[in-house]
Input
Amino acid sequence: MPFEATEKIWMDGELVPWEEARVHVLTHTLHYGTGVFEGIRAYETDAGPAIFRLTDHVVRLFNSARILMMEIPFTVDEIVEACKETVRASGLPSAYVRPIAFYGYGEMGLNTIPCSVNVAIACWTWGAYLGDDGVTKGVRMKVSSWARHDHNTMPPASKTTGNYVNSSLAKVEALKAGYDEAIMLNDSGLVSECTGENIFAARGGVLITPPLSAGALEGITQDSVMTIARDLGHEVRVGDLTRSDLYVAEEMFVCGTAAEVCAVNSVDDRAIPCPGPRTTAIAAEYGRAVRGQIARYKDWVEHVD
Ligand code: PPE
Output
């Protein structure tokens, strides 16, 4: 998706002009996919921009790094503050925030131990990830021919840049075939997640979403949605979903920071009731929660000022 430049990008401790936030072509992570990143959204609230579950995202960034044995040369608090500083400097009322930690210039070869680690944080305005009509009309999904990577191939709990080769293969395949997004099964044939979202399907009145063990990222939106759904009185379970479950689901949605909550209207051309009543209610409640409009979720909303 195209985006517009903002004024500054935070790089290794200071804000630099957007066009000067450059790296060398021999940056280690460019060659080997060894970076870790986050996707976070800042929303407009009555008290100015607030970053939704910022600390949780930064903690996940550090966990991603930990899995890679990458030492980020900043603390969680410093990166939290840097994200706020980047949003403040942009002057944007709402934004998508992208922190990335990567192995820099100076070493080649697969041993990452001697590599230096750089951190950058950019933000920009990002619209509806799966299209403006996502919640009302829903998206068309295709079960991918690409399997989600296995735990002993690429750890799915780490939001590693290289992991996204798998997602890009599935995304392009789905788009070329005329669908909006791909659903990825794991090596056992169970549903894992989508290329950039977690998935929920309703069966027997229960909303089911696959766990990390199925190869899904532990989504922060997935977690927020489970809380919201339960608070709205819906039964939610973390558990297995098969391809058959998808085809006969009572309703379905996908969720992620970029995609927010987005209804699904079909899987492999099998129509699914859309938007389902739970999807509509959860999407609306999520939209209010991220903007600090619901008192019980106010701890999720981290104001930049
Ligand atoms: N699974 C994957 C594979 C994934 O990339 C994301 C986020 C999620 C689930 C949902 O996680 P969370 O954002 O914590 O609810 N995908 C990010 C990157 C999208 C991109 O195209 O880049 C995002 O939504 O920001």
Remarks:
- The first helix runs from residue 28 to 32.
